[in-house]
Amino acid sequence: MAQSVLKVVDIKKSFAGVQALKGVSLEIKAGEIHCLAGENGSGKSTLIKIISGVYTPDEGQIIFGDKVYSKITPIEAIRNGIQVIYQDFSIFPNLSVMENLAFNEELANKRKLVNRKRMKKIAQEALAKINFDVDLNAKVGSLSVASKQLIAICRALMLNARLIIMDEPTTALTRKEVNALFNIILDLKKQGIATLFVSHKLDEVFEISERFTILRNGEKAAEGFTSELDNKKFTYYMTGREFEDKPFVPTNVSEDPVLSVENLSMNGFYENVNFSLHRGEILGITGLLGSGRTELALSLFGIMQADTGTIKIDGEPVKLDSPETAINHGIGYVPEDRLTEGLFLPQSIGDNIIVSELDKLSSRLGIIDRDKKKEEIRQWVDKLSIATPNPDNACSTLSGGNQQRVVLAKWLSRDLKVLVLNGPTMGVDIGSKHDIHQILRRLAEQGLGIIIISDDIPEILTNCSKILIMRNGRISAALTPDEADTQVLARYMM
Amino acid sequence: MNRIMKNLMQRNEFYISIAIVALSIAIQLRSGQFFTSNNIVDLLSALIVPGLFALGAFMVIVSGGVDVSFPALASLSMYATTRILVDTNYQGGILLPIVMSLCFGAILGAVNGVLIATFKLPPLIVTLGTSSVFKGIMQGVLNAVQITVIPPGMSSFGTAALFIATNPQSGLTSRMPVAFLALVIVLLIVYFVLQHTMYGRGLYAIGGNEVSAYRAGFNVWLIKFLLYVGVGMISSLAGLIRVCMMTQAHPTNMLGMEMMVIAGVVLGGTAITGGSGTLTGCMLGTILLVMVENSLILLGVPTFWQGFFLGVFIIVGMGISALQVSRAIKARGALTRRVQQ
Amino acid sequence: MRRTLAFVLVLLMVFSMAACSSPAGKSKKSESEWEIVVVPKDASNPWFIRMEVGVKEFAKETGLNVYQKGTPEIDATLQSQLIQDLIAAKVDAICVVPVDPGSLEPVLKQARDAGIVVIAHEGASLKNVDYDIEAFNNEQYGAFIMDNLAEAMGEEGLYTTMVAHVTNASHNEWADGGVKHQKEKYPNMKLLEEEPRVESEDNGDVAYQKAKELFKKYPDLKGIMGTSSYDAPGIARAIQELGLVGKAFTSGTGMPAANAELLKSGIVKSLTLWDPALAGKAMCALAVKVLRGEEIKDHLDLSVEGYTDLTFKEGSTTVLEGKGWIVITAENVDSFGF
């Protein structure tokens, strides 16, 4: 049995009376790849902050080897070989790779003057640890997300790390980059460095980790070897609920297509795209980042314009040159980044829901009928079971999944024919994700045509009745879910 | 060679330099006076005060803040210095006035520093506030009025010349003030601090990402506090030099300079969001604005149109640099897309 | 018969109305409750500090509640805000030296609508005032500055004019007057047509920079007629630095103490001036007369030196002009006490 690098015992922590951790224990052994999973608010980030010394626990012990602490400072955590790679990587986008890598050590040595030679040497040594090849003088901001992450990893390794904690490291990475990252994690394992991998994506948990700990509501819901875990158990431990993932079978498909796209091309982004969507169907479009899927979605909503080809709504060719015309033709769009594109976060939940139907709720003089407005908001909050004590609260108080529901409500309050969703469950908890899928299915059954654009392959496979795969701007395959599985999709994507 | 060219083309300094050359030629064509020794000396002499202000503003912007209080700070500290020395009938040299104004500058800068670094208040709001407070102290407490006769040591420093440039054709002479050395010295110090000390790199780091800077081990509080103290000192020095050169102290006629100075710094390619920008760009941007401001008559812009012209010039200048930046971002986006395919 | 009756009735009405508006004084309060405020362009310019001396003297002599209140910097917006505050405070009279007459009109209208007496100084173009008081006829004063400049220039050569802002009423009237006077009296002098008027923005440094540019671009330029009190000293600094002493000249308004050295060193031969203290005093005296409901007509005597025989400007019923100008030279500069 390998020696443990870190052990926390019975940690308790509360914030303003709310118990965030109710006695959690965790042990990580040298060279182990351990996954810490849990939904938002389950206490994972609190636990990590306690391990890295940012928070002090109310009760419990933190043990490094044979040293027992009841609380630690960030510096002590670092001295004991704990390194955290935050989601924002804690990098300086405006500075060079060299400076990003060398600052920590230079500052730790209390250097006052800049010595570029020495900094270059430090940086080179750091990059060598994972054989990462990058221009030392490049500005970090100009690098890809994956490279930024590698720089953060190199920097963590420099300070004799024994445990690297990665907070949701795969969120912004493409599949290829995720593979590269996993190889590095395995490489670190060989060097005896343990990784604590924080995630809520189950396929990743299965792929990389040896052991797992799942938190729910501040308590440990389960721990064990990943090999003993399956999909259903994982979901159960995470949410405390059981879900059945039945594939979607459309029941109410219209005879004529509601939307058809013929020979649509946009120079440099996609070409010769053909497909049709019937009412009652859920069409999935997938592909790698840069395959043209996002641009295609934006063209369907009039934000970008195709150069050639036709888009028909109910058999009539239409020209979608702005979101306004798209909306007038009955097309709705839920953007990839709902936070910046879809919602007015500081405004109330209610106002966000009814923003697109204000004309319907106001009198001829343009004055809003308050009772009507209240009733309308209440209806949507109920229909989509948005979890809020009061719809007058700001939208920013909601969790990701609930915000996504508000975006949906905003669109559904209009009479839509087609709803295009770009990455509808990105960054959303499993529970909420499931609920959103159920809502989408119900909507399809009510006769809405739905397009889901996503790189979450299981999501596409279980929820869509037709699947298009895009590669380099072209449709490389059009399949039905029973013809496809993860491997098939991946083959057409790469 | 090609690569060097391409590299150059991506740099804001390159465009500013072209603009400066183009403007010089335009002024030369319109007046025949630009490339004369005394005109160049006149411009350099007009650059001293805005140049010093710009160095301070530049460092603050690099750190991710913005300071609009420096004209008020400089006015108050130069006024207090001059007032005290006049009232005590000071007859000595320039050293004491400089030391005094640096002390006042440090104290006033420390006020900004404490509010911004310790209480973590937004720099724009803080400096708008302290700007009013400084003006208020001048008006209310010191009851500031124009001081028309300043101590002899100050006026002789202000009118002392390094050399005198004579235009052989017109016989006009211009003096290169000794005070120009102050700009050169401060420029060198700022350059050294920004490029060769961990403190200076810390300013860039904070401007890039303050949380990361804290996590990396920079003493964010100290860096910010010292920044505002330093900027206060530089601004005060500029204020004092202005008094010496004009041989009179007017309490309010520097107010309002902040916009031109910040415009010059931003024109030079310093990102207003912090973290990026070069000293070269900062100085070139300032030079460009000082040139425009002091060449409108040489250019033959009618009096009625001067304000308009200046405004349009700033908007176009900023527009071009903004365009360059967005183009660079787009180009980068296209590149990563190609790489991924 | 009916016609006669109608005529009589009309006559009666006219008389009764006239009776109602008979001059019973503008204020219902007693004199000791009056509040008269003088609003200068700013509070730090020595010019207006001198004005305050006169205002305080007036307050002391009359025992009335008269005081001066200025904005921290020269700014048209701040000035109109200050006046709005005074309206809200229900003062009885406002004496104002406008920064930008045009933009002040709406506020002054509010003041008058609120029953406040408005007296202006250096604002001959203002419409919403009871009276505007000028130390002198602007055109005549401009001619007077021109006489001084012409004398320095030897009555020949190229010259131009400098004002604080091209929107400043008095400065431009002086400059216009000076130019007109030159055309009539000094045929050997010539206005620089390319730049007939430049702005100093009431800032000595700007005046200095602009003068330098002018002398560089126009080598034949021999004189600059200044108007604002910052102009001539700034121009003189440029003349001195460019090595043009004795070759180029300036004249304009200036305070004695601030310019003693310039005058004594001979860079500037003479400056012209009126005493702002007396102007301030005259404004207050006029305000009191209006508040008392006294009749204001030609040859008005305000019992203030230089303002003992005020006459209405030609064609105007609001602008009153005195004869308050003085010239200061190296010889008399020390005799003014300010």
Provide the fold topology.
The complex is a heterotrimer of chains A (494), B (341) and C (338).
Chain A (H helix, E strand, L loop, with lengths): L3 E12 L2 E12 L3 E6 L5 H8 L7 E6 L2 E3 L4 H6 L2 E4 L11 H12 L7 H13 L16 H14 L4 E5 L7 H16 L3 E6 L2 H7 L2 E6 L2 E7 L5 H9 L17 E10 L3 E9 L3 E6 L5 H8 L7 E6 L2 E3 L4 H6 L2 E4 L3 H5 L6 H6 L3 H4 L8 H14 L16 H13 L5 E5 L7 H16 L3 E5 L3 H7 L2 E6 L2 E6 L6 H8 L1
Parallel strand pairs in A: 3-8, 3-9, 6-7, 7-8, 13-18, 13-19, 16-17, 17-18
Antiparallel strand pairs in A: 1-2, 1-4, 4-5, 9-10, 11-12, 11-14, 14-15, 19-20
Chain B lengths: L1 H8 L2 H20 L5 H26 L7 H18 L7 H24 L4 H19 L10 H8 L1 E6 L6 E5 L2 H17 L1 H11 L1 H7 L3 H27 L10 H11 L11 H15 L2 H4 L6 H35 L1
Antiparallel strand pairs in B: 1-2
Helix pairs in contact in B: 2-13, 3-8, 3-9, 3-11, 3-12, 3-13, 4-5, 4-6, 4-11, 5-6, 5-11, 7-11, 8-9, 9-10, 9-11, 12-13, 12-15
Chain C lengths: L1 H19 L14 E5 L6 H17 L2 E4 L7 H13 L4 E4 L4 H13 L3 E5 L9 E4 L3 H16 L3 E7 L5 H17 L3 E3 L5 E3 L4 H14 L3 E5 L5 H11 L7 E3 L4 H10 L4 E5 L1 H17 L18 E2 L6 E3 L3 E5 L9
Parallel strand pairs in C: 1-2, 1-3, 3-4, 4-5, 5-13, 6-7, 6-8, 6-9, 9-10
Antiparallel strand pairs in C: 11-14, 12-13
Helix pairs in contact in C: 2-10, 3-4, 5-6, 7-8
Task: Write up what this structure looks like.
The complex is a heterotrimer of chains A (494), B (341) and C (338). Chain A is of the alpha/beta class and 494 residues long. Chain A contains 18 helices and 20 strands. Chain A folds into two domains: 236 residues, P-loop containing nucleotide triphosphate hydrolases (Rossmann fold); 237 residues, Rossmann fold. In chain A, the strands form four sheets. Chain A has a six-stranded mixed β-sheet, sandwiched between helices. Chain A has a six-stranded mixed β-sheet with strand order 16-17-18-13-19-20, sandwiched between helices. In chain A, helix 3 crosses helix 4. The model of chain A has no long low-confidence stretch (mean pLDDT 84). Chain B is 73% helix and 3% strand. Chain C is 43% helix and 17% strand. In chain C, the strands form three sheets. In chain C, strands 2-1-3-4-5-13-12 form a seven-stranded mixed β-sheet, sandwiched between helices. In chain C, strands 6, 7, 8, 9 and 10 form a five-stranded parallel β-sheet that branches. Chains in contact: A-B, B-C. The interface between B and C is large, with 43 and 39 residues.
